[in-house]
Amino acid sequence: MKGVDGIEVIVAHSERATLRVGDTFLKIDADPQRIERETAVMAMATIPTAEILWQQPNVLALAALPGTALGTLEAPSTASAAAWSAAGAAAHRLHGSPPPPWPGREPDETASELEAECEWLIAHEVVPAAVVRRNRAVAEAAFRPYAPVFTHGDLQLTHVFVDGDEVTGVLDWSEAGLGDPLFDLAILTLGHEERLDQVLAGYADDVDIDVIRGWWSLRSLTAIRWLLEHGFDPTAPGAEVDVLLARM
């Protein structure tokens, strides 16, 4: 770490923080079990991840990945169509690999959370009631039978690094486990609906687009309160509120 000019805060809130110190990323988590699980999942992943440098109870040190993130939620992505297709292919490879032993979230738990968050959004007038109700109806498509697979669980485009047209690695595996493969595809394309066809070209499986739209709505409805309480802005251009408005 000699010659480091300073420490860059990548993201920080009450549950966890990620810092960059030179070419090393330090992921600090209030829950040591989450760090242990993330380390175990990365070892099982069949797609590129960051190199683990060392681990302590609440800290995971990772080497920087080559390339740049696929994009950000609030701005158009400058990555090529081939890079987005490569991200879809990586997701497909992960979904087809032997799954971890951890069970995913139960549909009843997700449905209960959705109802509670919709009530909160309307009661606090964060989003117009008509927008909430419309997206609640769209979200219903996500509640259908599916075969659980190995999912990343938080496959945001900021977590997928590419160099040219190739995926160089995927970050932040703390939510990984058995889950809905279309949830991963929805999170990857959240706010970037125009890139969905490119992702699906790489994914190369038949996909129900209505289910992905359902997850876009469900994820946005259930995330807004958490984002506000942790210092993030879901009303930024292209962010969660815009995703909800797009369904109108």
Structural features:
248 residues, alpha+beta, Aminoglycoside 3'-phosphotransferase, Chain: A, domain 2, five-stranded antiparallel beta sheet, three-stranded antiparallel beta sheet, 8 helices, 10 strands, globular
Looking at CATH, the homologous superfamily is: Aminoglycoside phosphotransferase (APH), C-terminal lobe
Helix percentage? 40-55%
- Please provide the count of β strands: 10
Low-pLDDT regions: none
The average pLDDT score comes to 92
Number of H/I helices: 8
SSE order in H/E notation?
Answer: EEEHEEEHHHEEEEHHHH
Largest sheet: 5 strands, antiparallel
The shape is: globular
Quaternary form: single chain
Strand % is 15-25%
User: CATH class, anyone?
Assistant: Alpha Beta
Distance between the termini: 50 Å
What does it look like?
The chain is α+β, with helices and mostly antiparallel strands and 248 residues long. The protein is 41% helix and 18% strand. A five-stranded antiparallel β-sheet has the order 1-2-3-5-4, covered by helices on one side. The protein has a three-stranded antiparallel β-sheet with strand order 6-8-9, covered by helices on one side.
